[in-house]
Amino acid sequence: QVNLVESGGGVVQAGGSLRLSCAASGRPGTTYAMGWFRQAPGKEREIVAAISWNGRDIKYSDSVKGRFTISRDYAKRTVYLQMNSLKPEDTAVYYCNRDSPPYVLWGQGTQVTVSS
What we know:
Blueprint: E1 2-7, E2 10-13, E3 18-26, E4 34-39, E5 46-51, E6 58-60, E7 68-73, E8 78-83, E9 92-98, E10 110-115
Parallel strand pairs: 2-10
Antiparallel strand pairs: 1-3, 3-8, 4-5, 4-9, 5-6, 7-8, 9-10
C-alpha cells in the first residue's frame, strides 16, 4: 500500500507563494502519473495540475496555468507544486494522488488559505 502525505500549506497574502510537497511511502511500485487536486468548501474536488510518469507531459487547469508549477523527484518519491501569484480563490485543501482512477488512498491534504 502506498501512503501519500501532503505538506507545505499555510496562510499567505494574495500575490504570495507557497510550495507544496507530496511524499509517497510504503511499498515501491509502478511510477504513476500524479496530480495535485484541491477542494474548496462546498465545492467538488478538482485537479489543478498533472505530471506524467516520466515527467515529460504536464498539464494545468486554466485557473492555475502560468502561476503553478508541478514537478517530481523520483529519488525522494515526492511531487511538488510551486504556487505563485496566489489568489483568494486558490483557498482550498490541496491533495495529491494518481492523476486518474483508480486512486490510491487519499492523504489528509494540506490547507492553503490566501487572504485578500
